[in-house]
Amino acid sequence: MKVEILYKGKVIGRSDLQPVDPPMGVAAGPFEATLDYDPLLRAYVIDGDDNDVDSKALSARSADFGTIVCAGVSI
């Protein structure tokens, strides 16, 4: 499923999600950043180090299904 990844409503990237753990409802895919993406502000892990990210500010949406209801989005 092709989705846009948003941070506080602004599109910061896109991904083509595939199921990786269907019983748990987990999907993943490669992240393609837009010019609005700043990894220092929005990535959960940078070079193996944890990064303080506002998890409620990240969301995903699909052109076909609208906002994806999920427990979390991480980059």
Would you report the number of β strands?
9
Coarse morphology = globular
Biggest sheet: strands side by side, in what order? Answer: 5-2-1-8-9
> How many H/I helices?
1
Q: What is the C-alpha radius of gyration, as a whole number of Å?
A: 12 Å
Report the β-strand fraction as a percent range. Answer: over 45%
What is the distance, rounded to the nearest whole angstrom, between the alpha carbons of the first and last residues? 17 Å
| Secondary structure category | mainly beta
Secondary-structure element string: EEEEEHEEEE
> Biggest β-sheet, characterized?
5 strands, antiparallel
Which stretches are poorly predicted, pLDDT < 50 over at least 5 residues? none
Provide the helix percentage: under 10%
Instruction: Kindly report the average pLDDT value.
Output: 86
